[in-house]
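Re-running the complex after MR caught last week's input typo. The corrected sequence lines follow. Everything else is unchanged.
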Amino acid sequence: MYERKLPIQEECGLDLIREVVFGKWKIHLLYYISQGISRPGQLQKNIPEATRRVLNIQLKQLEDDGLVAKTVYDQQPPKVEYYLTDLGKSIMPIINELGQWGDHNSEHLRRVIKNGWYCRRCNTLTTIKRTAC
Amino acid sequence: MYERKLPIQEECGLDLIREVVFGKWKIHLLYYISQGISRPGQLQKNIPEATRRVLNIQLKQLEDDGLVAKTVYDQQPPKVEYYLTDLGKSIMPIINELGQWGDHNSEHLRRVIKNGWYCRRCNTLTTIKRTAC
DNA sequence: TTCAATACGGATAAATTTATCCCTGTAGTT
DNA sequence: AACTACAGGGATAAATTTATCCGTATTGAA
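Corrected-run output:
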């Protein structure tokens, strides 16, 4: 049981949204759920780079934060279906725009993220570009 | 000099945008710069919860990723001004929408982030709500 | 009877991000 | 002469997030 030590910022809308959607896979989860991919196993297949564990954690956080909810069917083997709450639905237009922005600028972004003007592998504050690594 | 060990995801637009804007203060920095707060000292005053150090790091990353650029005036004491690139400008409508969404739902969000259905201080996967801590 | 499919989560290690503290250098002000 | 404002960054510690590994339980199929 991890106990948080630093205070959570909640001054403005930007603070608040960061708290609820800035997990590694949260926007992906919201996106796929909005597309009708509702079961945990399916979500996992759609996000193969993520481990099952972290998806569970982030789904739980999205649920606790009120962006998604789930139906647990009382049967064996277990069956669970996630869906967006009204609050979750209300954020989807923005998340879709984020995805479109990323797609639209993907060529540039891939370039700078990977082997941009400096090597992203270094946490780098070097002012010498292109030669950091 | 930190060397990254896990691969950076870059499959889709959502991956890409996460890489460039999901730092703790990046959306705040973009917002204030878009509002004409251009000098490092001013940015710092507008984001007092952040340390000078991390703002420098994230400004550098935004710069390396091509969302902001800066003018360094050759004078003493030093003077630097940041501004949005075209790419940076193109993302501002979405960041503004994020902030508005957070503001609009701030009552709910503050509640669930702080003392929501579970206590956020615990990294919590407990199914027992409201009593975790 | 052994195995796959289903969903969930404990325990711990590793990776990454952020915080803390301190130092550089110059021009102007008190 | 000492002090301030200015922008930047090194070194390291702390905090947080994510990865890895393993175990629970039930039903139906091979």
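None of the earlier attempt is carried over here. Residues 13 and 90 of chain A are 15 Å apart (CA to CA). Residues 6, 39-41, 52-53, 56-57, 72, 76-80, 123 of chain A lie near DNA strand C (CB under 10 Å from a C1').
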